[in-house]
């Protein structure tokens, strides 16, 4: 396999730095391009470049066509660029700043690496992924199989918090829990009834405990925002989660790994079976995605939901369509 070029956009940030380090450690990556608007990114790249893994590492800013250089030839682009939340803010409050950032970076992808896999971390993911899709569509290069909203932190939190809730805090790695819907508050729908291995029946019969666990998963990001008290949102767990998804995609897309399934917020407009399960024609939704050489190989169905999960799906559907439309309109009807 030829080595991969990975570009991290927003690489000098709280997520970008540890994420860049994790990507640097992947032996399949031979070219790591770190882009940010702040010049310290060159220092971040110099720092990362001393790690004794294969990837050559370079930092780029806006000067000297930095975005072009970072993106040209990229196989995979990961975007954690943008402002994070402060206490009291929702992810939607970030829209005004981050929408424009993602639009401009997506334009760069359309111009310089239209075939790359694109992983969007910048919030609000429910809207920024539709924004990127619209930019790529307008440029005639949108491939729905290659654009992913990263919801892996919700998946990671589901395992960790469920293990804690059932009194087995060290057993988080054993649990695989699909998370569907979107990536913000009530749009995050962890399907605890489908956990593998199954979570104990006592959790499901204790309604208050179950509700508290689901609420904690949905609003887990707030725990970090509040604890950081104005200094940002999740960065280390997000870098871990973002890398986890990137590694799964690299394995499935470039290293022939089979049966790799991971939830991600993807284009589902043409997936009639998913639309039917959701009960609405939504363009984007997070579902378990089977990954392969083309990116999305197969969208897995939501499957059997408990009656409480069906209620939660309705709450998700009360918010998600508006967030998608907001992203689409930002490109289609700019003010
Ligand atoms: P940060 O402020 O520490 O870093 C953001 C970086 O983006 C900064 O270095 C900044 O200079 C850079 N940047 C800004 N505009 C840019 C542009 N046009 N091009 C390239 N780089 C640019 O923020 P942090 O904590 O790293 O968060 C980044 C984003 O990730 C936020 O939008 C945050 O809400 C989101 N996030 C997403 C999560 C998810 O689960 N998908 C979880 C946690 C955060």
Explain how this protein is built.
The protein has 335 residues and is α/β, with parallel strands linked by helices. 44% of the residues lie in helices and 17% in strands. It contains 12 helices and 11 strands. It has helices at residues 16-24, 40-49, 66-71, 95-112, 125-138, 152-165, 201-205, 207-218, 220-228, 236-254, 272-278, 307-332; strands spanning 4-9, 29-35, 56-60, 76-79, 117-120, 147-149, 179-181, 188-190, 260-267, 284-292, 295-299. The strands form 3 sheets. A 6-stranded parallel sheet has the order 3-2-1-4-5-6, with helices on both faces. It is globular, with a radius of gyration of 19 Å. The chain starts with a strand and ends with a helix. The mean pLDDT is 96. Residues 9-10, 12-16, 35-38, 80-85, 94, 98, 101, 104-105, 121-123, 125, 150, 153, 183, 232-235, 238 line the site of 1,4-dihydronicotinamide adenine dinucleotide.
Radius of gyration: 19 Å
Query: Averaged pLDDT, please?
Result: 96
Task: Bin the strand percentage.
Answer: 15-25%
- SS elements, strand count: 11
How far apart lie the N and C ends? 46 Å
Q: Give the helices and strands as they follow along the chain.
A: EHEHEHEHEHEHEEHHHHEHEEH
| Unreliable runs | none
| Number of discrete helical segments | 12
Helical content class: 40-55%
CA-based shape: globular
Across the major sheet, the strand order is 3-2-1-4-5-6
Instruction: Output the structural class.
Output: alpha/beta
Bound molecules: 1,4-dihydronicotinamide adenine dinucleotide
- How is the biggest beta sheet arranged? 6 strands, parallel
